[in-house]
Amino acid sequence: MIKTGIIGGSGYTAGELLRLLQNHPKTTVDFVYSTTNAGKPVAKVHQDLLGDTDLLFTDTINPEVNLVFLCLGHGQSKAFLEKHHFASHTRIIDLGNDFRLHPDAGSFVYGLPELNRKKIKMTQFVANPGCFATAIQLALVPLAQHQELQNSIHINATTGSTGAGVQPSGTTHHSWRTNNMSHYKAFEHQHLDEIQQSLDKLQPGFNQELLFIPNRGDFSRGIFATLYTQTEKSLDAIVALYKTFYQNDPFVVVTTDTIHLKQVVQTNKCIISLEKKGKYLLITSIIDNLIKGASGQAIQNMNLMFGLDEKTGLQLKSGSF
Amino acid sequence: MIKTGIIGGSGYTAGELLRLLQNHPKTTVDFVYSTTNAGKPVAKVHQDLLGDTDLLFTDTINPEVNLVFLCLGHGQSKAFLEKHHFASHTRIIDLGNDFRLHPDAGSFVYGLPELNRKKIKMTQFVANPGCFATAIQLALVPLAQHQELQNSIHINATTGSTGAGVQPSGTTHHSWRTNNMSHYKAFEHQHLDEIQQSLDKLQPGFNQELLFIPNRGDFSRGIFATLYTQTEKSLDAIVALYKTFYQNDPFVVVTTDTIHLKQVVQTNKCIISLEKKGKYLLITSIIDNLIKGASGQAIQNMNLMFGLDEKTGLQLKSGSF
Amino acid sequence: MIKTGIIGGSGYTAGELLRLLQNHPKTTVDFVYSTTNAGKPVAKVHQDLLGDTDLLFTDTINPEVNLVFLCLGHGQSKAFLEKHHFASHTRIIDLGNDFRLHPDAGSFVYGLPELNRKKIKMTQFVANPGCFATAIQLALVPLAQHQELQNSIHINATTGSTGAGVQPSGTTHHSWRTNNMSHYKAFEHQHLDEIQQSLDKLQPGFNQELLFIPNRGDFSRGIFATLYTQTEKSLDAIVALYKTFYQNDPFVVVTTDTIHLKQVVQTNKCIISLEKKGKYLLITSIIDNLIKGASGQAIQNMNLMFGLDEKTGLQLKSGSF
Amino acid sequence: MIKTGIIGGSGYTAGELLRLLQNHPKTTVDFVYSTTNAGKPVAKVHQDLLGDTDLLFTDTINPEVNLVFLCLGHGQSKAFLEKHHFASHTRIIDLGNDFRLHPDAGSFVYGLPELNRKKIKMTQFVANPGCFATAIQLALVPLAQHQELQNSIHINATTGSTGAGVQPSGTTHHSWRTNNMSHYKAFEHQHLDEIQQSLDKLQPGFNQELLFIPNRGDFSRGIFATLYTQTEKSLDAIVALYKTFYQNDPFVVVTTDTIHLKQVVQTNKCIISLEKKGKYLLITSIIDNLIKGASGQAIQNMNLMFGLDEKTGLQLKSGSF
Hints:
By secondary structure, chain A is of the alpha/beta class. Chain A contains 9 helices and 14 strands.
């Protein structure tokens, strides 16, 4: 059994990891570190785990675990690792953004399995991608691999309120958020950097505009992204290209059907729908922001790092309704 | 024109008062007092008022206004009035709970117009009822007036997230609240005291159990209350009794149709539906918690205190969808 | 008093008209025509009107009314007017799409007051704009007037479920729609034609791409639209241009604040927010699809046609929460 | 492997069965019968299964399967079984209400495992309980077993829109249902009969009133039920009694914590919270109406009928947010 520890145990991604890990046949959760909740039962915070676990939060780490998940706020992972030391064999998956971008990444591999599966299998350290970054990259990397990103890329994506984290605020107050919609950080979202970095790796010299408007949606889970760009390739050719690219990726589904967000909510799937409208290729990409966009992808990376079947513990019933 | 001031201007009830007052033909808002937002445009906090008002929050009161609305947290009105003094002619409507219950009420009249219209017309000080208390009392007072509350009363009511106030918290976080339901303060909600007091006044010696379960609903506005009690009276007799009781009340509608919450949301109406099931009378009572349950009722009280038509400024389009 | 009749009385836009007309001081509703509901109380279908109106649906028109609102399905207004005849003085406002486009429009004026106020004041027949078309045109016409639409225009807009009409279907089933998001008719929405026509009128020869993705949102009311295009003008210059264009339009607010959909829900307002990001101008435009996008705009047109203050009956409390 | 067939394959319970069965390690789905969708891919109707299954709907049954799930409308199972014949070894689980009540039940065992586990293990035919009936019975059977139901029982329960089935209607239209609340069949819901039957079996001569108000909630999944009745037993004694009763039931959790609906949504769990308020015992019972209230419970029954671990295929990640 893989012994795991979770750092930053009271947030949404930690809760989702706990839910996934408790049904994962090859892992145990050794400790859940939370300075604010130390001593408290985990099920008092992640209340749906009532009856499923007797774990208590702790403020002591076990440095000998096989794997540590870092679920700290963005920018706090590096500081945490400077203060706390793990065994030389301990693997680390960081769900924050500290190690996603070079040169800060150091020895961390960018954990998008569909892009870096081989490297993830060999590495000790993984930087788990951002949620928007996951949905957007999966929509674009097959084109980049074929040097087909030759025009501006227009992206509009809407995320659920869990994307904003567990800390309550004005824009996550239910009275404000329900029945509402807004955008934020238009053209300037921090995930653009990791997207850019991946595209550049596949299509060296990539310098097209990525025009991205992120929206706050009126739902708690999921990312619904539409992207379009000009291309001369036919729809058939593009579909073939995507299907080939993703032929060995168990969580990515390529389709020409129209799709809707709830097809993937509560799963680790990404569904990509392709349409051609005149010279424009329209790509719709949907994921669950907490699963494929965070904790599920972390488990997927763990599976790869430990030589397990990539799907272990991730065959999840969709939420559907 | 009635010159009004609002104390505690950044909360939900203050916002709703501002929305209602700006379309009220007989009032002006002289000042909106908020220590935390002093100097800031009101439309920066109540953002739907953008383009409608240039008012700034202030930390200075004008003691000469004709009417002051107190929109402070519960328990803070008394302290505020001890520190700040208004002119001897200034009328006061307190939306908090400081003056609802005797003997604390002092010279404040309990502001449920359907019960105390005459006294409200004559008084200088009104204690505006609580939101649950409004929905529940309007469902019961016709029976109390006829001494017909002779058995236990079973009450279940669900409120929207605005009922919890603007301050964000765990149970108003959108990710938690959406698609969720829970109850709180079962059998012990503080509004039971004001309900008890009113029923006792109409039906002296009233001592039946009021068994009340308040729920947190997955919507932002409205209270949906069901009540039942045993009675030997026929449905026809009861309907007649309610229709007579409310014959001069422009905001209360009595029906035997089945009803649903959104019939009253965004209005000052209370719809009461009556059914008889065997020996049980089932009463459904619906209001908008921020309007008839708070700010709308405050305007209604203001209209009465100043000799205006009770409906002035309160003929509101329902939200419906 | 203006005597009005409503044709197609059981749908959402008819219901919203009835809600607005009952608080309009200068109109009476003479009849509400619905073949399927004839004889039934209007408040049995538009149930929030319970206690407000005793009107019955009828299958007989009064051809002598001053104004008829056509709330039929798209494509049915022309057929209706061929079968039914009104007095020579009767004015007509069509909420469908039969008369929006030339040459079908005939003597109908396109009823976007901010564009055609003078013509609307003089005409007997108005074609009320589509909801998406309203939000999008108000975002673009100031630029078109100055011949500033010189590049592709990228539009993403999300509408509430009332936009799909009262007839239940798979994509308006609550279980499907709640917490969901999807797009439809990407790049091909029928409202593009009326938008094109208006832009072409203001900026003759306008031939830029209008790339429009319409989304189905997880709320019942409202349209949240973002648009961007390249321009060399500074933000200050653009804001000045918009403020000048809309200086006499009581329902359009121009701002540089960030905005969110619920600022306009339940009102006849359109708020337009302007940002400049590098060479791109980002325009956010929000309306209530049933009010400024349909029935409220119809009342606004009526007010203009009858020489009333444009705001009569349209000073509505926003829904806010 | 257990070969299963599903009759009535296009509804919500069939969809949920398919989602559960595809991750169940001991079953295969042999056919999905739907006369209206025959020939169509299952994933065109249950669209979240895209990429997971290539099954087509069929209008031909395979009478040799090991198990048939009947997911027909209420009242249609009997007629279906009269027309279609299965092998003598084929087991049947009916998710409708045709065989729940004696004497209609015939050789069907009432499939509430916590009540009838032994009988379910031995039977060929199971009548799966109703969703409300599941939540309510699990809240009451420990008391009934101890003859402790000696007073009126007051029940208020709210269900999600999936409870109304996939067929669209006025009260499942998103525009109507969202932000709304209503009740239906107060005191007369059909599930009262099966509840009564179970309680009577455990507490012979049970004749207390079951006063039940079912509500339509503003969410798609889940049942939130509160029940109270008078009892002289202490809370400790009652908690002990419930914990003993459910000690071998893997899906029922007994607690004195306050609970909220989303703790169980997307799982097969039922959480029961107990409080004592004066002489009243307040029981809160929560389930997912489509899982523990329908398809999950059917799988649980299948597991028992085939000698599998009861939890097989039912260790589901909760939805949580």
